[in-house]
Amino acid sequence: GSTDGTLDILRRYEGRLQWRSEPDTGQANAINKGFRLSTGDIVAWLNSDDIYLPEALHHVARFFQQHPEVDVLYGDFWWIDAQGRKLLARREIPFDADILLYGLNYIGQPTVFFRRRVFDLAGYLDESLHYGLDWEYWLRIADRGGKFAHLPRFLAATRLHTTAKTVTAPAEMFAEHRAIRQKYWRKRRFDSVHLQGLYEAWLNKFYRAKRQWCKVTLRHTFDWLPASRMMK
Question: What is the CATH number of the domain that holds 123?
């Protein structure tokens, strides 16, 4: 359970939100509980280490109002350290299902917002997963025809630290990612190891070229408060 005063803060807003503090079977199970309690048309989840940037929700709401056909929206994000200092800016590419399938999860989870209808389309998070639950969900939504869009604006910051589970258990993470990839690659009939190797090499080059193209053509400059100030 949380030891940072979360429960005391939540109790202050008792009449304005719903919350639960109870045992769960893992991250995906806890998030799914929140999804089922939610009532809004636009849904998201934010892990305890991550933050939304100023005006992020405003820009997300406006985008969904202007683009009713879009199911899932994601944006750009900052990597920050344990103290909230900016480490690296991640400006991402427009949605490309093939690159996502290859295994490059370029969609920053804290920047993702989606419509409630996605639950009818693709269900909830896979509670058997612990390291690739977000990537698998994006793949499943895309596989079932969900429409993604990229908003070229910084929406969130995600924290890097030595105790993150993706850092402390790399072997388990790799094994889970491999199983997810194989599951969706079989749908594309990439059963041959040789064909998989060729496809990986081509997509890796394509992804790098596409990222470089986005950097060259980007014409907007965003000025944000330092991440350390945003945490106050």
Answer: 3.90.550.10
Strands (E) located in the chain: 42-43, 51-52, 72-80, 86-90, 113-115, 148-159
Q: Is residue 92 part of a domain?
A: yes
Residue 83 placed within a domain: yes
Q: What domain range includes position 166? A: 44-230
d(CA 13, CA 133): 30
Tokens representing 35 are: 């999804």
Distance CA 57, CA 108 (A): 16
d(CA 181, CA 217): 31
pLDDT in tens, 189-211: 655 554 555 566 656 666 666 56
* pLDDT (average), residues 39-61: 96
